[in-house]
C-alpha cells in the first residue's frame, strides 16, 4: 500500500521539483530578477526574485553633484549618469531545502533617473559612472586602510573592512580589503529599467523609462550575513577612468573633488552639506 501511495504522488513530486529547480531559476535569470508578466498582472512573488529583501534604503536628492561636469563631454544625459537618486541594500537568500541553487547574496542597488548614456558601448549597459561602496562588517575589526584604490575622502564614522568597486568595464563588481588586495568578485551585475509605475520596461518602446537600476550582487559567504548586526555603508560615485587605481577620473581643478556624488544619511542633508576637495563621507547604517 505504501508503494502505491508513493507511485500515486510521484507525478506531483516531479512537477514540484521541476518548478523549484528549473522554472524559478530560469525566470530569475531570463527576466533579470523580475518578471514582466507578474508586474503587469499584480501577482506577488518572493522578493528573492526582485533584487531581494530590503534591509535599508536611502534617498538622495537630485542636482546635488559635488563638482561641475567636465568640459568636452558632449552627452545630453551625462548628468543623470552621475547623480544617484537612491541606494538600497538588499539580500537574496533561499531556504536550503527549496532546491534552488542560487548562492546567497548581498545586493547593492543604485537608482538613476531615466536611461543612462553608454558612449563607450559597455556590454554592462553603462560606461560613465563608477561606484564605490565601503562596508563596515560587524565581525571584523579593521583599524586603518593603506590602499591606493581608495577615493580621496574622509570617512566620518567607523573604519571599513571591504571596498567594492562597480564599473561598466568589469564583468563583476570587485571586492578589496583595506590594503587593496582583491579578495573576491561579485555574483552578477544587473541593469533594470522601470516606468513611472515601477513596472519593468523590457523591449517596449511605447513606455518611457523613468528609472534605471544597477544591481551588484556580492557573496554573503565572503562578506557575512548583512541581516545580522549593525552594518555601515559609505557610498560615492565618480566618472570612470581605468587609468587610475580607484577608477575615478580626477578633477582638472585641484579645488574640486574627484567625487561627483555621495549618499549620506538624511540628517546630514539638513546640515546643508558642503563639498570640498576632500569630501567627508558619512556612514549609512543598517541595523537588523
Give a short summary of the structure.
This protein has 288 residues and is α+β, with helices and mostly antiparallel strands. It has one domain (50-287): Immunoglobulin-like, CATH 2.60.40. The protein has five helices and 14 strands.
Please supply descriptive tags for the structure shown above.
about 290 residues; alpha+beta; Immunoglobulin-like; 7-stranded antiparallel β-sheet; 5-stranded antiparallel β-sheet; 5 helices; 14 strands; about 15% helix; about 30% strand; globular
Task: Give an overview in words.
This protein is α+β, with helices and mostly antiparallel strands and 288 residues long. It has a single domain (50-287), classed as Sandwich (Immunoglobulin-like), CATH 2.60.40. The protein is 17% helix and 29% strand. The protein contains 5 helices and 14 strands. Strands 4, 6, 7, 8, 11, 12 and 14 form a 7-stranded antiparallel β-sheet that branches. A 5-stranded antiparallel β-sheet has the order 1-2-3-10-9. A hairpin with a 7-residue loop joins strand 6 and strand 7. It is globular, with a radius of gyration of 21 Å. It starts with a helix and ends with a strand. Residues 27-45 have low confidence and may be disordered.
CATH class: Mainly Beta
Q: Could you give the order of the helices and strands?
A: HHEHEEEEEEEEEHEEHEE
> Which runs of at least 5 residues are low in confidence (pLDDT < 50)?
27-45
Number of strands: 14
Which class best fits the helix and strand makeup? alpha+beta
Overall 3D shape? globular
Q: Count up the helices.
A: 5
Query: How many angstroms does the end-to-end distance come to?
Result: 50 Å
Mean pLDDT: 82
Here the CATH topology equals Immunoglobulin-like
Specify the CATH architecture. Answer: Sandwich
Taking the sheet with the most strands, its summary is:
7 strands, antiparallel
The count of domains is: 1
Radius of gyration: 21 Å
The percentage helix is: 10-25%
Percent range for β-strand residues: 25-35%
Amino acid at each position: 500500500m505504501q508503494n502505491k501511495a508513493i507511485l500515486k504522488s510521484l507525478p506531483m513530486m516531479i512537477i514540484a521539483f521541476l518548478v523549484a529547480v528549473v522554472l524559478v531559476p530560469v525566470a530569475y535569470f531570463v527576466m533579470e530578477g523580475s518578471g514582466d508578466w507578474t508586474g503587469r498582472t499584480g501577482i506577488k512573488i518572493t522578493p528573492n526574485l526582485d533584487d531581494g529583501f530590503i534591509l535599508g534604503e536611502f534617498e538622495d536628492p537630485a542636482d546635488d553633484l559635488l563638482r561641475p561636469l567636465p568640459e568636452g563631454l558632449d552627452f545630453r544625459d551625462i548628468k543623470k549618469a552621475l547623480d544617484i537618486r537612491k541606494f538600497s541594500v538588499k539580500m537574496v537568500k533561499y531556504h536550503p531545502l527549496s532546491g534552488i541553487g542560487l548562492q546567497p547574496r548581498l545586493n547593492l542597488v543604485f537608482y538613476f533617473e531615466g536611461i543612462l548614456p553608454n558612449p563607450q558601448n559597455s556590454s554592462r549597459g553603462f560606461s560613465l559612472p563608477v561606484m564605490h561602496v565601503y562596508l563596515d562588517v560587524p565581525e571584523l575589526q579593521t583599524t586603518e586602510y593603506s590602499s591606493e584604490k581608495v577615493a580621496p575622502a574622509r570617512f566620518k564614522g567607523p573604519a571599513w573592512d571591504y571596498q567594492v568597486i562597480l564599473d561598466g568595464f568589469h564583468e563583476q563588481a570587485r571586492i578589496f580589503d583595506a590594503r587593496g588586495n582583491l579578495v573576491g568578485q561579485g555574483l552578477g551585475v544587473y541593469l533594470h529599467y522601470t516606468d513611472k509605475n515601477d513596472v519593468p520596461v523590457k523591449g517596449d518602446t511605447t513606455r518611457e523609462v523613468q528609472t534605471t537600476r544597477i544591481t551588484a550582487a556580492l557573496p554573503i559567504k565572503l562578506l557575512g550575513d548583512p541581516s545580522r548586526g549593525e552594518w555601515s555603508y559609505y557610498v560615492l560615485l565618480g566618472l570612470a577612468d581605468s587609468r587610475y587605481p580607484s577608477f575615478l577620473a580626477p578633477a582638472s581643478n585641484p579645488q574640486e573633488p574627484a567625487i561627483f556624488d555621495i549618499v549620506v544619511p538624511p540628517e546630514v542633508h539638513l546640515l546643508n552639506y558642503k563639498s570640498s576637495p576632500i569630501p567627508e563621507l558619512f556612514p549609512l547604517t543598517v541595523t537588523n
